[in-house]
Design brief:
Radius of gyration: 29 Å
EC number: 3.6.4.13
Helix content: 40-55%
GO molecular function: ATP binding; hydrolase activity; RNA binding; RNA helicase activity
Catalytic activity: ATP + H2O = ADP + phosphate + H(+)
Distance between the termini: 69 Å
Bound molecules: cytidine-5'-diphosphate, magnesium ion
Keywords: ATP-binding, Helicase, Hydrolase, mRNA processing, mRNA splicing, Nucleotide-binding
Strand order of the largest sheet: 4-3-5-2-6-7-1-8
Strand content: 15-25%
Protein name: RNA helicase
């Protein structure tokens, strides 16, 4: 393999090609990808005493090795040792014993369900076994799906390491807005959503010889849809191999779905885990978790801790809390290494969770649900489980989704506890009562397909030519109501016509890997010649949760810096402004530092934007710009987001006699002179607020929005997303005109309906006296 590329004897590296060549030798040496003989040769080549060293340090050589060369040799020796240990680790995994049996079963059965405990080696080893067994010959690929971005990235990196190749070469990954693969890639890890999109360009997935639908038990929306699609292509691609791999849950169900496919059960190594419950329910689980960590740290023998939290905010708060506590304790206690892991964590920081813990110290990993099954962290002996998870919940009755922190299921609690028993006997501390475990938790997590908006999926299936979506081969059917809501939304967006067929607009929308409401906004922006601005806003919205940098000790500074970006027109324009100023500053990191922005997030926004712009080209949307204009941009966005709109409901100060309102504001009091239901409700809430335009559901402007405190408060607002904390909050808000609703979404709002809304929200004439009392939605 190296013969042909070896430079001619006697010629040493003088040009760039040859330099690269020698670098490759070194990489291969390091990772053990070369056999002994080639290694020796390569040593001669790279480190020839009399001449070879020359390319490293021109003319510094005098027949002996320089210090640098010696250091390099040492490094190579160390790396070789590591390469050895990587091979040993591979062979120590539970799945290794079954390698040959597995390959036989795969050869024999087109579909195989592989079940093994988390950490057995399914994700990292199965694709390599297939590769070693020749499934990647002739340019064919092995694909492996992951429900989570972070898992796809970290596992690909690990496998690249194991195979001694550079990430993106033989082993690569593909996640939304980031493609880390090349022509050379034969093992491709990807999110399930990305494989789903590949069906659009290659409906037979003809470049894959084998597909592994991994972490099947997670039952994400995309995985569930994939099940139906891959089952279908397996019928007319008999040579295609399908592996459904799952932790120890639901295997029978998968097997049954794939026409009674055989189940290959890899027995796990599992040590007993002692369970501990709290006596009383915990009011504040973060507090309880921190206390538990410290108790473990000071009283329990060696072993790392894994704590499950619901999201980045909680993880950061806990990290700070722990750091402060540890600082206060000083050197009274041994070192505690705090390692967070969540989806938006920059990848170079993710590596920290995998680093071995030094002797005498203890590591505590603060993780989202990602550590439940997708990622295995060695060395964990103690698990702390507060019993919550953040998930998206959709209510087909109202058509609204929001992110909600919810109790986990018993199945999930068992998986979490299991993470403690991988290296030896472990302990799981559940921050809830035994009674709650038995009586309050559901047995299984409800699959995402049954609790999410399906507009995206329906649009995708429609573009794949699957017309009868209601009767698609689902593992678990989504509620018919949800599918019907999706049809309604797609019809209202103009993606489907009145016969339920995909329109040209719908076809164009399906090209974009974003929510149909966003893709509609992008495509619609061409009518207003402001695609440039809309693209930026939409890309910013994708990252808006992790954009602002607010370190605790500089919070005031940060908030002040962020205030400078506020622009009229709503939060969307603030986002636009941030991006444009950053662009003007040549996308510099320094600028982010000065303005308290997360550089990584902005870089991602730029990538997302570039990709969306590329897709615009594909569907022939011309990217024009209308700088400094507000209304056209607002309208373009409203054309996609009319579904997420609310109108104002007025609140009344309790210290003002109701009669004052009565004479001026119709509808405030009912016929009997009592406060109407609306008024009373508003008074109870004290905060006042907004109601969704279609369902009259109460929602509130998020405290981070620039619309807070706006006078007069806008009558109609469009929001990007809802988050449920103490109340249902709208995040990323923009004021709009009520009349736009029937103008831009005539399939959804009729004129009289809008006029009526304007009547209750718009036409109220407030006397000055009342206006001064800040009647109107009290936003703060
Ligand atoms: O998929 P499954 O849960 O069965 O196991 P895996 O993800 O293939 O992990 C097998 C082993 O690889 C783990 O026990 C870890 O020791 C190691 N691994 C790692 O060190 N770093 C990663 N990013 C992923 C896995
Ligand atoms: Mg796995």
């Amino acid at each position: 393999r190296y013969e042909e590329s070896k430079p001619v004897e006697g010629q040493f590296v003088t040009d760039v090609d040859q330099w690269e060549e020698s670098q490759r030798y070194k990489t291969d040496l390091r990772t053990g990808a070369m056999d002994r003989e080639v290694v020796e040769e390569a040593y001669d080549y790279v480190f020839d005493e009399s001449q070879g060293i020359q390319f490293l340090q021109e003319g510094r050589l005098d027949g002996t090795l320089t210090a640098e060369a010696q250091a390099m040799l040492d490094q190579i020796a160390a790396a070789e040792k590591k390469a050895m240990s990587i091979q040993e680790t591979r062979q120590s995994l539970p799945i290794y014993e079954f390698r040959d049996e597995l390959l036989e079963a795969i050869a024999e059965h087109q579909v195989l369900v592989v079940v093994a405990e988390t950490g057995s080696g399914k994700t990292t080893q199965l694709p390599q076994y297939l590769h070693e067994a020749g499934y990647t010959k002739g340019g064919m690929r092995v694909g492996c799906t992951q429900p989570r971005r972070v898992a796809a990235m970290s596992v690909a990196a690990r496998v690249a390491d194991e195979m001694g190749s550079r990430l993106g070469q033989e082993v690569g990954y593909s996640i939304r807005f980031e493609d880390m693969t090349s022509d050379k890639t034969v093992l491709k890890y990807m999110t399930d959503g990305m494989l789903l999109r590949e069906f659009l360009t290659d409906p037979e997935l003809s470049t894959y010889s084998a597909l592994i639908i991994d972490e099947a038990h997670e039952r994400t929306l995309s995985t569930d849809v994939l099940f139906g699609l891959v089952k279908d292509i397996a019928r007319f691609r008999p040579e295609l191999r399908l592996l459904i791999s799952s932790a120890t849950l639901n295997a029978q169900k998968f097997a049954a779905f794939f026409d009674d496919a055989p189940i290959f059960d890899v027995p796990g190594r599992r040590f007993p885990v002692d369970m501990f419950y709290t006596q009383q329910p915990e009011a504040n689980y973060i507090h309880a978790a921190v206390t538990t960590i410290l108790q473990i740290h000071t009283t329990q023998p060696k072993g790392d801790i894994l704590l499950f939290l619901t999201g980045q905010d909680e993880i950061e708060a806990t990290e700070e809390n722990l750091k402060e506590t540890m600082y206060a304790l000083g050197d009274k206690v041994p070192e505690l290494i705090i390692a967070p892991i969540y989806a938006n964590l920059p990848s170079e920081m993710q590596a920290k969770i995998f680093e071995p813990t030094p002797e005498g110290a203890r590591k505590v990993v603060l993780a989202t649900n990602i550590a439940e099954t997708s990622i295995t962290i060695d060395g964990v002996v103690y698990v702390i489980d507060p019993g919550f998870v953040k998930q998206n919940n959709y209510n087909p009755k109202t058509g609204m989704s929001s992110l909600v922190v919810e109790p986990i299921s018993r199945a999930s609690a068992q998986q979490r506890a299991g993470r403690a028993g991988r290296v030896g006997p472990g302990k799981a501390f559940r921050l809830y009562t035994k009674w709650a475990f038995k009586n309050e938790l559901l047995q299984d997590t409800i699959p995402e397909i049954q609790r999410t908006n399906l507009a995206n999926v329906v649009l995708m299936l429609k573009s794949l030519g699957i017309n009868d979506v209601l009767n698609f081969d689902f593992l678990d059917k989504p509620p018919a109501e949800t599918i019907i809501r999706s049809f309604e939304l797609l019809y209202a967006l103009g993606a489907l016509n009145h016969k339920g067929e995909l329109t040209r607009l719908g076809r164009r929308m399906a090209e974009f890997p974003v929510d149909p409401m966003l893709s509609k906004a992008i495509i619609n922006s061409e009518n207003y010649k402001c695609t440039h601005e809309v693209l930026t806003i939409i890309s910013m919205l994708q990252e808006s949760g992790s954009l602002l940098y607010r370190p605790k000790d500089k919070r005031v500074h940060a908030d002040k810096a962020h205030k400078n970006f506020i622009k009229p027109g709503g939060d969307h324009f603030t986002l636009l402004n941030i991006f444009e100023q950053w662009a003007d500053a040549n996308y510099s990191q320094q600028w982010c530092y000065e303005n308290f922005m997360q550089y990584k997030s902005l870089v991602r926004v730029r990538d997302i934007r570039d990709q969306l712009a590329g897709l615009c080209e594909r569907v022939e949307v011309i990217i024009e710009s209308l700088p400094n204009e507000i209304i056209p941009v607002q309208k373009a966005i409203t054309a996609g987001y009319f579904y997420n709109t609310v109108s104002a409901h007025y609140t009344f100060s309790t210290s003002v006699p109701l009669s004052i309102y009565k004479s001026h504001i119709s509808g405030a009091l009912d016929d009997k002179g009592e406060g109407s239901e609306l008024t009373l409700q508003a008074r109870i809430d004290k905060g006042g607020g907004y109601r969704t335009t279609k369902n009259n559901h109460s929602v509130y402007v998020h405290p981070s929005s620039c619309l807070i405190g706006m006078q007069p408060p806008p009558r109609f607002i469009l929001y990007y997303e809802l988050v449920l904390t103490s109340k249902e909050y709208m995040r990323q808000c923009m004021p709009i005109e009520g009349t736009w609703l029937s103008e831009l979404a005539p399939h959804y709002f009729n004129k009289s309906e809008v006029e009526q809304m304007m009547g209750s929200a718009g036409k109220v004439k407030m006397p000055k006296q009342v206006a001064e009392l800040k009647v109107g939605p009290v936003l703060a």
